[in-house]
Automatic annotation (TrEMBL), chain B:
It holds the Pfam family ABC_tran. CDD domains: ABC_PotA_N. The keyword Phosphoprotein does not apply. InterPro entries: AAA+_ATPase (IPR003593), ABC_SmlMolc_Importer (IPR050093), ABC_transporter-like_ATP-bd (IPR003439), ABC_transporter-like_CS (IPR017871), Mo/tungstate-bd_C_term_dom (IPR008995), NA-bd_OB-fold (IPR012340), P-loop_NTPase (IPR027417), PotA-like (IPR005893). It is an enzyme of class 7 (translocase). This is Spermidine/putrescine import ATP-binding protein PotA. The complex is composed of two ATP-binding proteins (PotA), two transmembrane proteins (PotB and PotC) and a solute-binding protein (PotD). SMART domains: AAA (SM00382). The keyword Ion transport does not apply. It comes from Thalassobaculum fulvum. Part of the ABC transporter complex PotABCD involved in spermidine/putrescine import. Responsible for energy coupling to the transport system. GO terms for molecular function: ABC-type putrescine transporter activity; ATP binding; ATP hydrolysis activity.
C-alpha cells in the first residue's frame, strides 16, 4: 500500500499521473483559477448596480445599455465585417495552400513552406503588429487610402495558420484513391476538385473558417496597432473603456462575445470529430 | 475536352462473349522504372502482351511482380518509361486517365463516401455529359445487373463488403468502357463470398462482352475464371496462354511451380528425333516426350510430372521408378503420398480416393511410381 501511495507503478498497471498525491487538489485549483474569473465576469454582467464588484441584484440593464450604445454597435459591426472578410480570405488562401502542400508530388523546400505558412504562430504578435504598422503607414502615405482594408488584410494574414491546420489535417486523412477513381471515371482535374475533393474537404474548410473567425474576432494587439482613428473593433473599444470608468457594460459585452465564441468553437469541435 | 477516343461501343446486354481475334489492348515493349540511379526499381521490363477483344484476361504472379503497375499503365495513372500502350490500335500512352475509355474496379473499391449508390454508379456518365434520362436508365440497368436495386439510395458506408464490391463493379461498367480493369477485386472478401463473386464476375463479363483485365496472385482463381492468363515474374511476362496450356504446358520452371503443384525431375537425354526426345529417368525408365518449339536440349533436361498423373503400384507389379513411401496424408477427396526415389529425389503423388477403397500404401512400403508418357513435360532451361 505504501508503494502505491508513493505513486510508483503497480506491476501490471500503467503508470497513472492521477495517483500522484495532491493531483486532484492541483487540478481543482487550476480549474478554479481558469473559470472563477470568467464566472464572476458573467455573473456581474447581470448586476443591477453600477459597480463591477458590488452585487446589487439581477438585471439585464447593462445588456440593454450596451445594445443601445452607438459606439458599441459600430464596433460590433466593424468587428463582424473584419472577422468575416478576414476569415473568408484566410480560408480561401489556406485551402489552396493545403492542397498545394498535400495534393502535389513532394517538392524541394516543401517543409520550409510549411514553416512559412505557420509563421504567425511562432513570431511574437507584437512584432507582427509593429511591422504591419510601419508597412501600412508607408502605404497610407503613398496611396492616401485609410479604410478598413488594412485591418482586414492584417487579420487575414495572422488567421492563415489557424485556418490552414484543420484543412490540412483533413486533407492528409483523405485517401487519394477517391480522386484517382474520379479521374478514372472521366472527371477532369477541375471536375474532380469540384465534385470530390471539395465536398470531402468541406468539414475541414468550415472548421478552419470558424477558427479563423473566432481568432480575428478577439484580436487586440495587432488591431490596436493597425487601426486608424475611429476604427475600433469590439475588443479595442472595450480596452479603451477600461481606461476610463469601468461599468458592468464591459461585462455584458464580454459575456456576449464569450457566448458567440463558445458556440462557434463547439461547432468547430463537433465538425472536427465528424470523421470520413 | 470530354471526348475520349471512340467510346461508343460494346452493347452492355446480349453481347456475345466470343473472344474475337482483334487485339483490344496491346503493351509494346513496355518498361516502367521507379526511382533513379542505384535505387531504380524495374517494375516492368520490356513487357509485350496483347489482350483480345471480349476476353477475360488475367495477369497472374506473386506480389511485387508488376501486375498493378501494368494495370495502372493501361488506366493511365502511370506513364511508361519506355514502350507504348495501344488501345484498339491507337497509341494512348500520352492520354490522361479521364480521356481513356477504360474503367477500373479498385481493390479498396474507392466508392465516393458523400454520394449515394445510384450517384456513384452514375458518376462516370455524368462526367461524360450524358443526358439525365440516359444516366437514370443506365443506373437502373446496372443496379439490376448487380442485383442491388434495393440499395439505390443508400450511402455507400451502409453497405457490406460484398455489396460495395457490386457497386464498384456497376460504377465501372456503367460508362460501357472498352476495357474493364480489376485489381485483385476479390482479395478483401471471405472465401465463400469470393467464390460467389468469381461466378458473378464471369457472368457479368459474358453478359456485357467487355474485355476484362483481371489481376490476381491466386492461381486457382486465375485458372477458374480466365480465357487466357499471363504469368508474370519480376517485371516480365513468362507465358501467355489458356488455363489448360499454362497448366499442362508450362513454359519454364517458374510457371510450372507457380501454377498448381508439380514434381521436377532431371532426365538424361538419350537422343533427339524431330520434335521428340528420348529420356532416361532415374537411370532406368525410358520415356519419349515432346520438345518445346525450337529447343535444342543439352545432355540433361528438367521435366515436370503433375502429382495427379503419378500412379503408384507394388514394386514388382509396376514398371515405373522404384520408390519408398515416406509420408501419407489423407485429405478426404484425395490422399497425398510423398515418395523417395532411389537417387534421393522426392516425388509427390495425389491419388483420388475411390468408393470401393482400393490399395492404400503405408509409410515404408516399397512401391513403383509410374506415369503415362504423355504426362511428362520438358521445360526450357
Ligand atoms: N510508385 C512506386 N514507387 C516505387 N516503386 C514502386 C511503385 N509502384 C510499384 N513499385 C515497385 O514496383 C514493383 C511492382 O509493383 P506492383 O506492380 O505493385 O506489383 P504487384 O501488383 O504485382 O504486387 C514492386 O517492387 C514495387 O515495390
Ligand atoms: Mg498489386
Amino acid at each position: 500500500m505504501a508503494e502505491r501511495a508513493a505513486g510508483r507503478p503497480v506491476p501490471g498497471r500503467p503508470f497513472s499521473v492521477r495517483r500522484i498525491p495532491g493531483f486532484a487538489g492541483i487540478a481543482a485549483v487550476s480549474f478554479v483559477l481558469l473559470y472563477a474569473p470568467i464566472v464572476t465576469l458573467v455573473v456581474y454582467s447581470f448586476n443591477a448596480g453600477d459597480s463591477i464588484a458590488l452585487w446589487e441584484g439581477l438585471s439585464l440593464r447593462w445588456f440593454a445599455a450596451a445594445w443601445a450604445n452607438e459606439q458599441v454597435q459600430e464596433a460590433t459591426v466593424r468587428s463582424l465585417v473584419v472577422a468575416a472578410s478576414a476569415s473568408a480570405i484566410a480560408t480561401a488562401v489556406s485551402t489552396m495552400a493545403a492542397l498545394g502542400t498535400t495534393r502535389t508530388a513532394p517538392f524541394p523546400g516543401s517543409m520550409a513552406i510549411y514553416a512559412l505558412i505557420n509563421q504567425p504562430l511562432m513570431v511574437p504578435e507584437i512584432v507582427t503588429a509593429v511591422a504591419l504598422l510601419i508597412v501600412f503607414a508607408m502605404i497610407k502615405i503613398s496611396t492616401g487610402y485609410s479604410g478598413l482594408g488594412y485591418l482586414i488584410a492584417a487579420h487575414a494574414a495572422f488567421c492563415v495558420p489557424f485556418a490552414y491546420l484543420p484543412i490540412r489535417a483533413r486533407l492528409e486523412g483523405m485517401d487519394l484513391s477517391y480522386e484517382v477513381a474520379a479521374a478514372d471515371l472521366y472527371a477532369t482535374p477541375w471536375q474532380t476538385f469540384r465534385r470530390i475533393t471539395l465536398p470531402l474537404l468541406s468539414p475541414g474548410i468550415v472548421a478552419g473558417a470558424m477558427l479563423a473567425f473566432v481568432i480575428s474576432l478577439d484580436d487586440v494587439v495587432i488591431t490596436e496597432f493597425v487601426k486608424s482613428a475611429g476604427q475600433d473593433t469590439l475588443p479595442t473599444y472595450m480596452l479603451g473603456q477600461l481606461r476610463r470608468a469601468v461599468t458592468p457594460e464591459v461585462n455584458a459585452i464580454s459575456t456576449a462575445l464569450l457566448a458567440v465564441t463558445v458556440v462557434l468553437l463547439s461547432a468547430f469541435f463537433v465538425l472536427n470529430r465528424q470523421r470520413r | 475536352m470530354q471526348e475520349a477516343i471512340g467510346r461508343a461501343g460494346t452493347p452492355i446486354n446480349g453481347g456475345s462473349a466470343q473472344s474475337g481475334s482483334r487485339v483490344m489492348v496491346e503493351a509494346r515493349a513496355v518498361s516502367k522504372h521507379f526511382g533513379s540511379g542505384e535505387q531504380v526499381v524495374k517494375a516492368l521490363d520490356a513487357v509485350s502482351v496483347g489482350i483480345r477483344e471480349g476476353e477475360f484476361f488475367t495477369l497472374l504472379g506473386p506480389s511485387g511482380c508488376g501486375k498493378t503497375t501494368l494495370l495502372r499503365l493501361i488506366a493511365g495513372f502511370e506513364h511508361p518509361t519506355a514502350g507504348a500502350i495501344l488501345l484498339d490500335g491507337a497509341d494512348i500512352s500520352g492520354l490522361p486517365p479521364f480521356r481513356r475509355p477504360v474503367n477500373t474496379v479498385f481493390q479498396s473499391y474507392a466508392l465516393f463516401p458523400h454520394l449515394t449508390v445510384a450517384e456513384n454508379i452514375g458518376f462516370g456518365l455524368e462526367m461524360l455529359g450524358r443526358p439525365k434520362a440516359e444516366i437514370a436508365e443506365t443506373v437502373a440497368e446496372m443496379l439490376q445487373m448487380v442485383r442491388m436495386e434495393a440499395m439505390r439510395d443508400r450511402q455507400t458506408s451502409q453497405l457490406s463488403g460484398g455489396q460495395q464490391q457490386r457497386v464498384a463493379l456497376a460504377r465501372a461498367l456503367a460508362p460501357r468502357p472498352k476495357v474493364l480493369l480489376l485489381d485483385e477485386p476479390l482479395s478483401a472478401l471471405d472465401l465463400k463470398l469470393r467464390k460467389e463473386m468469381q461466378v458473378e464476375l464471369k457472368r457479368l463479363q459474358t453478359e456485357t462482352g467487355i474485355t476484362f483485365v483481371f489481376v490476381t496472385h491466386d492461381q486457382g482463381e486465375a485458372l477458374a475464371m480466365s480465357d487466357r492468363i499471363a504469368v508474370m515474374s519480376e517485371g516480365n511476362v513468362l507465358q501467355v496462354g489458356s488455363p489448360t496450356e499454362i497448366y499442362e504446358h508450362p513454359a519454364d520452371h517458374f510457371v510450372a511451380s507457380f501454377i498448381g503443384e508439380t514434381n521436377f525431375l532431371t532426365a538424361a537425354v538419350e537422343g533427339v528425333d524431330g520434335g521428340q526426345v528420348r529420356l532416361r529417368l532415374g537411370g532406368t525408365l525410358e520415356v519419349r516426350a515432346g520438345l518445346p518449339d525450337g529447343m535444342a536440349p543439352g545432355p540433361s533436361v528438367t521435366v515436370v510430372v503433375r502429382p495427379e498423373h503419378l500412379r503408384i503400384a507394388d514394386r514388382d507389379a509396376g514398371e515405373g521408378l522404384p520408390a519408398t513411401v515416406s509420408d501419407v496424408v489423407y485429405l478426404g477427396t484425395d490422399t497425398h503420398y510423398h515418395l523417395r526415389l532411389a537417387g534421393g529425389e522426392e516425388l509427390f503423388a495425389r491419388v483420388q480416393n475411390r468408393p470401393e477403397g482400393g490399395e492404400a500404401w503405408r509409410v515404408g512400403d516399397a512401391v513403383s511410381a509410374g506415369f503415362p508418357p504423355a504426362a511428362v513435360r520438358v521445360l526450357r532451361d
